[in-house]
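Figure 6 in text form: structure in, sequence out.
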């Protein structure tokens, strides 16, 4: 078994631990991903995202640079196990030397502040994929999740913890939380997509050899990326909306369009994007939800469109897939569900490798 995973937030998690006086090491740790467990699980390549929360940072550019410095230091400390990818040939070279590969991405196009020079600086730093938005509008475009409704749903959900389950006040608050959650999670943004600056960025990214990532982007924005590009692009960590109705997932039409372009979508391990649970009830996750999404995506878009995009260290732990050490569990469950070993090779690494061969400059 080999693995390529298009998205994780481990660098942000480890830097957060360091800032709290608990230096987290990429080589070995207790979060979702570390290098030793990756090696044991057959990883060929991991995309490491520099994730920035625009709502929590006074200077997003400074934050992304701090994350980059931490990432660079960790790769230098662990050069015996992993090496960066700047072009597609690096993947084969690293593999031949017995090392895993790391492809650097940024999750939140707003770190550039609309400045194309900063986009080029990210490329020079080694960034080869950029998620255009997270959950806030920025200079490039609009996300699908409604941030205000997200805050409202969280406020009501937090209030439930202080109330007696089954009480009148609990049931009323739960109803308000459910309503806010559904407005946030089930209502896609179909009007506002990319800004003019966003279209320019996407075109510049394609010219540079940086892959546009449409996970988190609005429905309108997805189709504008399709119009503004010629090469394949990615939805690095998105599932199927027909199986789970969250707007973070792709519609069947989007899956087909992405497949027609030669793009790849990464199966997201977040339990709430695989199968919804009532607001206020912890969603533990289960393997059957992975099977339903994988089967649906392949039936709609073909085998070549599906890859992995775990979102490890950016999501609550999915009990069915608690970390990189569990990849063989997912392989075995999908195999039992009828996916051949050849099909699983495509899903677990070959489809994403083909995407990189089609898009990254050497």
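Output sequence:
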């Amino acid at each position: 078994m080999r693995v390529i995973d298009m998205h994780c937030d481990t660098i942000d998690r480890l830097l957060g631990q360091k800032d709290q006086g608990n230096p987290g090491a990429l080589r070995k740790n207790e979060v979702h991903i570390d290098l030793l467990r990756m090696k044991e699980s057959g990883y060929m390549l991991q995309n490491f995202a520099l994730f920035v929360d625009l709502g929590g940072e006074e200077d997003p550019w400074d934050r992304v640079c701090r994350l980059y410095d931490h990432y660079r230091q960790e790769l230098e400390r662990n050069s015996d196990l992993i090496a960066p990818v700047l072009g597609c040939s690096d993947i084969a070279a690293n593999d031949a030397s017995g090392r895993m590969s790391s492809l650097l991405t940024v999750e939140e196009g707003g770190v550039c502040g609309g400045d194309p020079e900063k986009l080029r600086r990210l490329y020079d730093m080694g960034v080869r994929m950029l998620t255009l938005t997270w959950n806030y509008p920025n200079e490039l475009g609009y996300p699908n999740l409604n941030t205000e409704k997200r805050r409202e749903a969280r406020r009501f959900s937090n209030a439930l913890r202080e109330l007696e389950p089954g009480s009148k006040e609990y049931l009323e608050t739960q109803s308000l939380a459910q309503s806010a959650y559904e407005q946030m999670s089930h209502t896609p943004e179909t009007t506002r997509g990319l800004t003019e600056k966003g279209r320019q960025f996407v075109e510049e990214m394609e010219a540079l050899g940086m892959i546009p990532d449409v996970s988190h982007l609005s429905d309108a924005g997805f189709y504008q990326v399709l119009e503004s590009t010629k090469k394949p692009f990615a939805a690095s960590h998105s599932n199927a909306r027909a199986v789970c109705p969250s707007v973070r997932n792709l519609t069947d039409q989007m899956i087909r369009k992405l497949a027609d372009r030669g793009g790849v979508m990464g199966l997201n391990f977040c339990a709430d994007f695989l199968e919804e649970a009532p607001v206020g009830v912890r969603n533990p996750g289960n393997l059957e939800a992975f099977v339903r999404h994988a089967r649906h995506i392949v039936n709609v878009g073909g085998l070549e469109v599906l890859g992995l995009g775990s979102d490890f260290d950016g999501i609550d732990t999915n009990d069915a897939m608690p970390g990189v050490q569990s990849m063989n569990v997912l392989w075995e469950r999908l195999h039992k569900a009828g996916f051949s070993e050849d099909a699983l090779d495509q899903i677990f690494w070959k489809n994403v490798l083909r995407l990189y061969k089609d898009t990254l400059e050497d």
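Caption detail: The radius of gyration is 20 Å.
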